[in-house]
């Protein structure tokens, strides 16, 4: 009953997804204008977090390393965000996104000394939340949920494999932390 009510009200719009896309684009524009100063001030840097700059667990999910990085994350957010928003509603979608982004940055901070930016930890969290929904409602959704779960698993595997390539700038720890954050949120 609650699912139907949230689903019907959210189908008419994807306000959180659109807002997050707009914020990511606006922040990237500001990053570009700042000539890297905004990136340096807000990126996930483990030593800075250890020194008490805890805001760096939040800010990196709105920063991007390049225009292509921004495009891939916006494409991914636009692909999964509306689904999660329709299933869980505005408030829960917001909580999942933000909590997953922070969870990704916490794990990345604990496991890596590399500077990191990007929305992908938060997006992986949305994928995790979608996976949980599909797994919990397989009976209601029928065979389509198994196909979707398989597709999610393949996407996660491919992304993690790409992050293992030599010279990769992909933050697998951030992705994994975001995924777990989305599953538990």
From TrEMBL:
Q: Which Gene3D superfamilies match?
A: Rhomboid-like (1.20.1540.10)
Residues passing through the membrane, by range = 21-45, 115-135
List locations, semicolon-separated.
Membrane
Gene Ontology CC entries for this record: membrane
Peptidase S54 rhomboid domain span: 52-184
Keywords per UniProt? Membrane, Transmembrane, Transmembrane helix
Which superkingdom heads the taxonomic lineage of this protein's source? Eukaryota
Chief subcellular location:
membrane
Q: How does it sit in the membrane?
A: Multi-pass membrane protein
Q: Which GO terms describe its molecular function?
A: serine-type endopeptidase activity
Supply the name of the protein: Peptidase S54 rhomboid domain-containing protein
Q: State the organism of origin.
A: Hemiselmis andersenii (Cryptophyte alga)
Tell me the classification of the organism that encodes this protein.
Eukaryota, Cryptophyceae, Cryptomonadales, Hemiselmidaceae, Hemiselmis
């Amino acid at each position: 009953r609650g699912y139907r009510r949230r689903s019907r009200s959210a189908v008419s719009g994807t306000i959180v997804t659109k807002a997050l896309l707009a914020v990511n684009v606006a922040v990237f524009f500001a990053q570009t204008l700042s000539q890297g100063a905004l990136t340096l001030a807000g990126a996930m840097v483990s030593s800075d977090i250890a020194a008490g700059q805890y805001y760096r667990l939040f800010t990196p999910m709105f920063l991007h390393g390049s225009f292509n990085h921004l495009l891939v994350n916006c494409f991914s957010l636009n692909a999964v965000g509306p689904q999660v928003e329709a299933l869980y509603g505005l408030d829960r979608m917001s909580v999942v996104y933000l909590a997953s982004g922070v969870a990704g940055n916490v794990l990345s901070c604990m496991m890596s000394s590399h500077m990191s930016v990007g929305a992908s930890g938060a997006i992986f969290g949305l994928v995790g939340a979608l996976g949980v929904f599909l797994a919990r409602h397989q009976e209601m959704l029928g065979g389509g949920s198994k196909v979707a779960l398989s597709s999610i698993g393949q996407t996660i595997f491919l992304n993690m494999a790409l992050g293992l390539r030599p010279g990769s700038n992909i933050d697998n720890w951030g992705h994994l932390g975001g995924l777990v954050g989305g599953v538990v949120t």
